[in-house]
Amino acid sequence: MLAKITPVLCLVLSTVAASAAPCPADALGTARILSVDRSVLTVGRKHFPTTLPLAAKEVVLTFDDGPWPGTTPRVLDALARECVRATFFLVGRNAAAHPQLVRREAAEGHTVAHHTYAHPLLDHLRPEAAMAEIDRGMAAVETALHGHAATIPSAPFFRFPGFASSSPLLDRLAARGITVFGADLWASDWNPMTPDEQLHLVLDRLESAGGGIILFHDTKAQTAAMLPAFLRALKTRGYRVVHVVPANPKVAAK
Asked: Is 217 an annotated catalytic residue?
């Protein structure tokens, strides 16, 4: 599987306008790009046998359930200040309601991925109904990005709400070349806590894991408030951020 995931070293990552402010000299930055081939089926050791081929102290930052006004902009601002790229797994109805935030995520160089339309637990649905929910979510995100739905998502990355996957659904997504993301560690930010409590929880888990795919929620105020300190802590502790992108991104087709 590792041969299908190709790390590409990158000194500077940016898809924002040329007039954007340069990265500060002490910014955390994005260390490299990791391009994921469509034949890679599942990643994240919390849920699957294998994960991305990350070196020690490398992390992939992922955010679920947005976009959400009030919190997603704060998350994007924090990432921009540190010149960091992340992956956002979007709920389709939120993307439809806030397309300007979807377009901002893409314009600032982040990977826009998929998380169903309305966030149901898919293993509670019939496979046909579950796939319809997945497709509806992808169509809403692609419409927010491009102005029309697409038969193939721009980034074929998907995360199950609540990580509630099933073998039939995994098989159907694999047949379509869609990579399913779990996580290697999470912030547990669905539980109320102060930003400082969350910061220490995530850093402790990261030190134990040594790196990996981290799950946050950009819909949570505590996460938005905690993120600047977390990114600075990554810098001071010697962690490096890896940005995950599709190996062969598709141009959205009508």
From this structure: yes
